[in-house]
Amino acid sequence: MTTLDAVALDGEVAVFTFDHPPVNALAQPVRARLLAAIEALDADPGVRAIVLIGHGRNFVAGADVREFDRPPLPPYLPDVLARVEACGKPVVAALAGSTLGGGAETALASHYRCAAGDLQLGFPEVSLGLLPGAGGTVRLPRLAGWQASLELMTSGKPIGIDRAIDLGIVDRRVDGDLRSGAVAWARELARAGTPPRRVLELPVPASRPAQFEEFLRVLPATARRLPAPPRIVEALASAAMLPADAALARARALFLECLASTESRALRHLFFAERGAVPDAGLARPVGQAAVLGAGTMGSGIAISLASGGIPVTLIEAKQEALDAGLARVKSAIDSAERKGRLDAAEAAAARGRVQGSLTLAAVAGADLVIEAVYENMAVKREVFGRLGQLARSGAVLATNTSTLDVDAIAAASGRPADVVGMHFFSPANVMRLVEVVRGRESSREALATAHAVTKRIGKIAIPVGNAFGFVGNRMLYAYGREKELMLLEGAKPESIDRALVDFGMAMGPNAVGDLAGLDIGWQVRKEWKEKPDDPRFYRASDLLAELGRFGQKTGRGFYRYDGPGGERTPDPEVSELIRAEAERLGVRQRSVEPGEVVTRCILALVNEGARILEEGIAASPADIDVIWCNGYGFPRHRGGPMFYADTIGLGPAVEAIRELAKLHGARDWTPAGLLVTLAGEGATFGSWQAGREGARDGNGGRQA
Ligand code: 3H9
Predict the structure, then answer these.
(1) Alpha helix segments (H runs only) across 219-283
(2) CA angle, corner 436, sides to 279 and 668, nearest 5?
(3) Catalytic choice (85, 125, 485, 495)
(4) Which of 404, 538, 400, 381 is CA-nearest to residue 471?
């Protein structure tokens, strides 16, 4: 009788369990166990069929991404899966939950597949800059056809059980206990003498050679420029044209090319950076009820996030009309999530049931967490926090959503500053995943841990930041914006700046973003900003347009015009003329500014400010800055964030370029940060610096800004 790690016998059926917390990733020991098990079970006369199943909620969430930064270790997944497929006894994969990447490929190498109703099957490799590298590109089309394979693998989006059955990927659904259902089916197959059905032996579906090129052409231009999507299409085209062995070898070679690419390294860096542990997780206070003050766009967005994430919330406003409008926004967003299938009917009903409104601040008394999202004005916030300090129950965490004001000054007004933190959500709060969790001078570890835990619980990414003007994201935004504003005065057109940065990969150009957010918003902030740089050119173009009532999209004019029939964005020559006259007044000589200069100045300004923020301890790590910029400001993910990008160009060349810029534009804006100079001098990178500090930090409760 077989006695093996991870194998249990159920009569003549052997059950192999993937048991590798947290998500059963296919790390080397798991691959070795699976290979040993299949070989032994294939040879064991007492075993007539094999079931593969995952421990816990998931089957297998893929290859172990942590191994990708090291030399590959045998046994390699493609070889292990080839051995599974070659097994002489029926192998039934029992799928549930996350069945992703290498996990989905394991399912395809099995002979039969059944699944539980919560199946999420997909090929997310593309979001890591990779392609399915363990035979998926050759096996999947033999079950699901070319079009579905192209779509599943280039989108990375998982599918549920119904679609998996429709596509022929899953053979049957198991209601009730998955293990028993799979074992019963395996026994049935064995007793009926049903032979293994090997996917690689199924006929190759017909294809047109042009089909792959056509698919590539309609992919978004951004995807076409990345390494993975065109290689996924090429691997599938090879599977259509070459014998299986040659197609498998081609896919493997393409996978290794992707693995070595900077883009994949960048995406893997973000994958882990976005999954940092909750600092002081054990200290988080339970949150059974929340309250949000202010039912404007931000407040209702936060309420939607809390309710959808399972936390009952009271939305509080002073006036009935504003409260009704806020509650209507919440309802409409939940309805829309239901229509789009992001919440099922029961989840949507539960989310709606978790939101109630109130016109009295006293309603905060029942809340464990209060998030303030009232008007961005210190006097107003201090008044609100003074009352919250009295009304909120003892132990409740009081969070301000301010994006620019001093959290310590707000905290002091509450009379209980240890309970106060900042939770800086980004707009629209129900869509954007980023929250900067701001540590005030007196914020307690418990209050911070609670803010982090709640953010994670509602599916968002919490990044710890220190309390300084603009925290991390907006402070860096000012450095980035400073340069684009100077280049506007120097003669660059708004649309040329935007085009250069969009070509670099930014989701939107900064001038288009300004128009979308409203140029009046930043103008107001700068009016109240006491330590604003003493430079008449600082944000002069934006302020000039705001002074002229050109607030952006909401007034039909800003850096662009929006007054055409469809309200679309069109360049406005009048703007360049207004800025030219202003430049003349300020004595700025206009010239032609090339796209390369736009990118260099804007991105190096980010890098330099990021390095200063690290020196000052406002951010805990370069990776945190990368997560903030990729999730809050549309920095291209395939470049890994500004600090990772700096590592890829080299810190030495970055410092040299900054010194060159200092010669041309002055040392005030272009003195290289001390940390940057030190690391460049040591031949180090932000990545190596972070790795060196991580050991010391692990001992004291995770990341702390
Ligand atoms: C692949 O398969 C390539 C093959 O084609 C070819 C090979 C030759 N590896 O997200 P969570 C960790 S490429 C290692 O917070 P959730 C994660 O770091 C892979 N670790 O949970 C975190 O650790 P910690 C294709 C992994 O419930 C913990 O698990 N597969 C992996 O919100 C919990 O993660 C993917 O791309 C992994 N593959 O979501 C799937 N996955 O607790 C990637 C997770 O220490 N994973 N971890 O911070 C996911 O999409 C989500 O994690 C999942 C769970 C949906 C599974």
Answers:
(1) 221-224, 228-241, 244-259, 262-273
(2) 115
(3) 125
(4) 404
Q: Identify the helix (H) or strand (E) that includes residue 144.
A: helix 136-144
How many whole angstroms separate alpha carbon 24 and alpha carbon 30?
Answer: 8
Q: What share of the chain is helix, strand, coil (3-state, %, to 5)?
A: 55, 10, 35
Could you please report the per-residue DSSP string of 21-78?
Answer: TTTT-B-HHHHHHHHHHHHHHHH-TT--EEEEEESTT-SB--B-GGGGGS---SSPHH
Pair 404, 439: CB distance under 8 Å: no
67 tagged catalytic: no
Task: In whole angstroms, give the CA distance from residue 410 to residue 429.
Answer: 22
The finding on whether 98 has its CB within 6 A of some atom of ligand 1 is: yes
Report which DSSP code applies to 671. P
pTM (global) more than 0.90: yes
Residue 77: is its pLDDT beyond 70? yes
pLDDT digits (tens, 9 = 90+) for 272-284: 999 877 788 899 9
105 carries an active-site annotation: yes
The three-state secondary structure class of 425 is: strand
- Name which residue sits closest to atom 22 of ligand 1, judged by CA: 275
* CB hemisphere CA count around 212 (13 angstroms): 20
With a cut of 70, say whether residue 448 has pLDDT above it.
yes
**CB 66 less than 6 A from any atom of ligand 1:** yes
CA 652 vs CA 95, 645, 663, 666: distances in Å: 50, 13, 17, 20
Q: Which candidate, 315, 663, 631, 312, places its Cα nearest to that of 463?
A: 631
Kindly give the pairing relationship between strand 434-439 and strand 420-425: antiparallel
Query: Quick one: tokens of 112?
Result: 């039969």
615 vs 140: CA distance, rounded Å: 49
Residue with tokens 């004001």: 405
Interior/surface letters 497-536, b for 16+ CB within 10 angstroms, e for the rest: bbebbbebbbeebbbbbbbebbbbebbebbeeeeeeeeee
DSSP string, 441-501: TT--HHHHHHHHHHHHHTT-EEEEEESSTTTTHHHHHHHHHHHHHHHHHTT--HHHHHHHH
- pLDDT, tens digit, 9 for 90 and up, residues 347-381: 999 999 999 999 999 999 999 999 999 988 899 99
pLDDT at 140 over 90: yes
Distance from C-alpha of 74 to C-alpha of 425, rounded to nearest angstrom: 45
* DSSP code of residue 509: -
Q: How far is the CA of 62 from the centre of ligand 1 (A)?
A: 7
Judge contact between 456 and 473, C-beta under 8 A. Answer: no
Beta-strand pair 560-561/570-571 = antiparallel
Task: Answer whether 65 contacts ligand 1 (Cβ < 6 A).
Answer: yes
